[in-house]
UniProtKB/TrEMBL annotation:
One GO MF term attached to the UniProt entry: oxidoreductase activity
Keywords, ordered alphabetically: FAD, Flavoprotein, Oxidoreductase
Protein name: Alcohol dehydrogenase [acceptor]
Domain Glucose-methanol-choline oxidoreductase N-terminal per the UniProt entry, residue ranges: 94-117, 278-292
Family: Belongs to the GMC oxidoreductase family.
Entry keyword annotation includes Oxidoreductase: yes
Cofactor: FAD
Organism: Cupriavidus numazuensis
Pfam families linked to this entry: GMC_oxred_C, GMC_oxred_N
EC code: 1.1.99.-
Length: 559
């Protein structure tokens, strides 16, 4: 168990104004912002350990932490997916301070403004793009703004560092050139006025280190900050503390039951409990606490506090497919003697000045494009990866070097769900994304593969040589559509952006209202990626943090 000065205190105190469950992307923001008011007390409860570890702060370590189960990755699997020929989908989730922002790809994307305007049209008053932009800006310290290029879209003074890559790889630049040769425009800022085009991603890094939400909102990376609270006296951060259920008096949430070092205890919340346990564990916790589809809960012997059928429904995720090309260059990550020698020198370089390949987020460049010109916004995202990385199902370590490009459909129509395997939060949740259950999603996947192969065929990448892997069956040109569809069903998997399982809204399946209050009970909110009514067109870390920022204001406004 992590040592933490606050750990001793809680045994005696055990009572706070607010309890936030889950110290991930959103939870750190909610708790820290609430604790800015020195007159309130906040407990931030986290199942996993602290984040003072080289595998968190060293960018390249994500190759290990994101792809393998470990102390900082739950590494869930879905139930078998008929749309993926019966394969289980790999579903990594961060555990410990920072949550998934401690193992993610660090790509900083907010999504398209139309995504948020759609939320507002769905009844989420106060969540249109112009409403949420101030929260994106408040969270952000963009390196470009610090250089005096601030505009009305970017923030320069927030806790979340957003930086340009320190040592962009020569192949990332080749990819961008090839994408331009294939007809995509150059885009210097995917979070600027236009999302379309190809370019380098900005990353949640600072001075070449990962900047997760715990560094941003809690301790700034200072391992000597024993309370892990950045000096906020009212904020008690409890690691290795799993919440087992929310406790109620009638319909009012009064606190939580937790387990710490094998010992169960109750913590009281005088004002509110805020659940920020992520898209899988937030609905799991609500259900384990008696809030959810009544029949399902009774089936697991759980006393129903409130019958809320939408809990766990509406699961949306970005399905992703990868095309790999073997290229014999140690500028690319891979397994070879020459590659190992290169990594030794790159590690030394990183130790010296936090630059080079070790500071890479591996998915340095990417693109957004419209698979049909009549679309109002890009519907496919590409991420160019500097290694031979397949989708999880075939991610075996093989000798050699190469690159890969991911394509995902940004607004899938498939809807899945999260349910309980048992009433015990120590059990894993049942995850069923129902990938490709909506046939329309396949069209975007095919368009994505075709765009990747068009880009691969351009001079800027062809000059580096190499051989495309496993695409022989596609045939010439754009390839045989049926063969590509088969490839998708055999290979595609999640790119790790599950959302929507405690959706915000005003319809019967809404779990929280636009103030993030759980419908039908008192003193309980959800604030994390699970409240998104629809998946946004991009990566989901920045939006989850935005939700945390806005949640804190909504909670304060009600106090
Ligand atoms: C491998 C990977 C790569 C990704 N790459 C990117 C990327 O490059 N860019 C991007 O924008 N997004 C990326 N994402 C997605 C993004 O990181 C997530 O959408 C975002 O972090 C979700 O934030 P959250 O607050 O909803 O949940 P999380 O950050 O997952 O936080 C939930 C927290 O709650 C804790 N918790 C759960 N249950 C309990 C309990 N019962 N008691 C106490 N604590 C509990 C968990 O341990 C965790 O710390 C990636 C995700 C993964 C997994």
């Amino acid at each position: 168990m992590s040592s933490n000065a606050a750990n001793g205190r809680v045994q005696a105190a055990g009572e706070f104004d607010y309890i936030v469950v889950g110290a991930g992307s959103a939870g750190c923001a909610v708790a820290a912002r609430l604790a800015e008011d020195a007159s309130v007390t906040v407990a931030l409860l986290e199942s996993g350990p602290d984040d003072h570890h080289y595998t968190v702060w060293t960018p390249i370590a994500l190759a290990k932490t994101a792809l393998n189960a470990g102390p900082r990755n739950y590494a869930y699997y879905s139930v078998p997916q008929p749309g993926l020929n019966g394969r289980r989908s790999y579903q990594p989730r961060g555990r410990g301070l920072g949550g998934s922002s401690s193992i993610n790809g660090m790509v900083y994307i907010r999504g398209h403004r139309n995504d948020y305007d759609q939320w507002r049209e769905l009844g989420c008053e106060g969540w249109g793009f112009d409403d949420v932009l101030p929260y994106f800006r408040r969270s952000e310290a963009n390196q470009r703004s610090a250089k005096g290029q601030e505009d009305l879209l970017r923030g320069d003074n927030g806790p979340l560092h957003v930086s340009d890559l320190r040592s962009p790889n020569v192949f990332s630049r080749r990819f961008i050139d090839a994408a331009r040769q294939a007809g995509l425009p150059l885009n210097h800022d995917f979070n600027g006025a236009q999302q379309d085009g190809a370019g380098l991603y900005q990353v949640t890094q600072h001075n070449g280190e990962r900047w997760n939400s715990a560094r941003a909102y809690l301790h700034r990376g200072d391992a000597n900050d024993r309370g892990m609270n950045g000096g906020r006296k009212g904020l008690t951060v409890l690691t290795d503390t799993q919440t087992l259920r929310i406790e109620f008096k009638g319909r009012r949430a009064t606190g939580v039951r937790v387990v710490r070092a094998g010992v169960e205890q109750s913590l009281r919340a005088r004002r509110e409990v805020i659940v920020s346990a992520g898209a899988f564990n937030s609905p799991q916790l609500l259900m384990a606490s008696g809030i959810g589809p009544a029949e399902h809960l009774r089936g697991h012997g759980i006393a129903v506090v409130h019958d809320l059928p939408g809990v766990g429904e509406n699961l949306q995720d970005h399905l992703d497919v990868t095309i790999q090309k073997a290229v014999n260059s140690t500028d690319l990550f891979g397994y070879s003697l020459r590659g190992a020698a290169r990594m030794v020198s790159e590690i030394a370089r990183y130790r010296r000045n936090r630059t080079g390949m070790v500071s890479s987020n591996i998915a340095e460049a990417g693109a957004f494009f419209r698979s049909r010109p009549e679309l109002a916004e890009p519907d496919v995202q590409l991420a160019f990866v500097l290694a031979l990385v397949g989708n999880r199902g075939n991610a075996k370590k093989k000798p050699g070097h190469g690159y890969s490009c991911h394509a995902c459909v940004l607004r899938p129509e498939s809807r899945g769900h999260v349910r309980l395997n048992s009433a015990d939060m120590r059990d894993v949740p049942l995850i069923d994304p129902r990938f490709l259950s909506a046939e329309a999603d396949m069209d975007g996947m095919v368009a994505g593969i075709r765009m990747i192969r068009r880009i691969y065929a351009q001079d800027a990448l062809m000059q580096a040589g190499g051989k495309e892997l496993r695409t022989d069956g596609f045939g010439p040109g754009d390839g045989d559509e049926r063969a590509i569809r088969d490839f998708v069903r055999d290979n595609a998997d999640s790119i790790f952006h599950p959302v929507g399982t405690c959706k915000m809204g005003v319809d019967d399946l809404a779990v929280v209202d636009p103030a993030l209050r759980v419908r039908g009970v008192e003193g309980l909110r959800v604030a994390d990626a699970s409240v998104m009514p629809t998946l946004i067109g991009g990566n989901t870390n920045a939006p989850a943090i935005m939700i945390g920022e806005k949640a804190a204001d909504l909670i304060r406004a009600a106090a």
